[in-house]
Amino acid sequence: MIYLDNAATTPLLPEVAQEMFEISLSVMGNPSSIHTAGRAAAKLIRQAREDIANLLHVPSDHLIFTSGGSEANTQALLGYALANRDKGKHLVTTAIEHHSVLNTFAYLRDRHQFDITIIHPDSDGNYTADMVLDAVKEDTILVSTMYANNETGQVLPISEIGNALKTHKAVYHVDAVQVMGKLPIQPLDLGIDLLSASAHKFHGPKGVGFLYYNNVRLDPLIHGGEQENKKRAGTENIPGIVGMAKALSLAYHDMTDNYQKVTALKAHLLAQLTGLTYYLNQFGTKTMPHVINIGFPGVNHNLLLMKLDLQGVAISTGSACTAGDIASSHVLEACYGPNSPKLKESVRISFSDLTTATEIDNFIEILTNILSHT
């Protein structure tokens, strides 16, 4: 298979899988137990927490391990809004966020009467810091934006927003799922108060992620025991947590080389599109090289995706979390409007550092053949 859907999930690294396998067989204790087996399990979690915290330059006791990015986003938004509603009930986000953010905001609006402002991009599909900051009111308590969009790769002005909000009572949540392990992130320097990440986006296991939180008050989502500093009850996923820490450490170690490799892969693909009729859905002043959102005029994206799949190529039409949903991309709709034909012509191609130039060459050959018979 030619796998070009890495924005949905990345392959698990063999060395990560091996470490998880060994731990699954050798560590049997519950981390909350006080006996030797329990203490050994707790030590592994503590070390993984410290390893991740050191990479982000944050205190290790300010990390909550979760089941992934959606839970981390929901914990951040719901947990903070409900715990701090006495300070205000206005929340700000953008129209291109992941559904775990947009749907949580809708829940807070519909069930808890929060006032929600959703910022739409400008006519060029761009977001500026001023657009976000202009939406902040006196009673705003939370601003939430992506670091980079999962469908188009657009990078938002995180540092400008975060540092400007330092003089306001509103806290800043950043969904960093698409950039964790690809860009160096230090939340304290960027003015980020809450940050979400998911392991399977940087060659770690599925079903595990984390939420960083600054000195903020959070209501827990899951009640029960006192795990995760009383912020998330339930026995921790030890192999998953250790695998996540291992994958993130490897990603940070090779970050510069990996970024350059993916940048070269994107350039290689675009250089071979000569002769094909296409357009790029690219917005903002900076995009992640890992994602190309591209449209072929008059070609239905679902039909194209199916034909590529039959020939062993995996791409997508947008967020994996909307798989099976016939609705158009809310991201492209925010940029082009609901009636644009581009909503039914565009596909997402996404790379990782494991993608090869040969795979790109073979993909272009298959794509060209399909388009020539469409």
The CATH topology of the largest domain: Aspartate Aminotransferase, domain 2
**Low-pLDDT regions:** none
Strand order of the largest sheet: 2-8-7-6-5-3-4
Question: Which CATH architecture of the largest domain?
Answer: 3-Layer(aba) Sandwich
Termini separation (Å)? 22 Å
Number of helices: 13
Record field, number of beta strands: 12
Beta-strand residue percentage: 5-15%
Secondary-structure element sequence? EHHEHEHEHEHEHEEHHHEEHEHEH
Mean pLDDT over the residues: 96
Number of discrete domains: 2
Sum up the overall morphology in one term. globular
Largest sheet: 7 strands, mixed
Describe the structure.
A seven-stranded mixed beta sheet has the order 2-8-7-6-5-3-4, with helices on both faces. The chain has a three-stranded antiparallel beta sheet with strand order 9-10-12, with no helix packed on it. A two-stranded parallel sheet has the order 1-11. With 374 residues, it is of the alpha/beta class. It folds into two domains: 2-10 and 254-372, Aspartate Aminotransferase, domain 1; 14-253, Aspartate Aminotransferase, domain 2, CATH 3.40.640.10. Helices cover 40% and strands 14% of the residues.
How do the strands and helices of this protein lay out in sequence?
Elements: E1 2-3, H1 14-26, H2 36-56, E2 63-66, H3 69-83, E3 90-94, H4 99-112, E4 115-119, H5 129-133, E5 140-146, H6 158-164, E6 171-175, H7 187-190, E7 194-198, E8 209-213, H8 227-230, H9 238-253, H10 255-271, E9 279-280, E10 291-295, H11 301-310, E11 313-314, H12 330-336, E12 346-350, H13 357-372
Parallel strand pairs: 1-11, 3-4, 3-5, 5-6, 6-7
Antiparallel strand pairs: 2-8, 7-8, 9-10, 10-12
Helix pairs in contact: 1-9, 2-9, 3-4
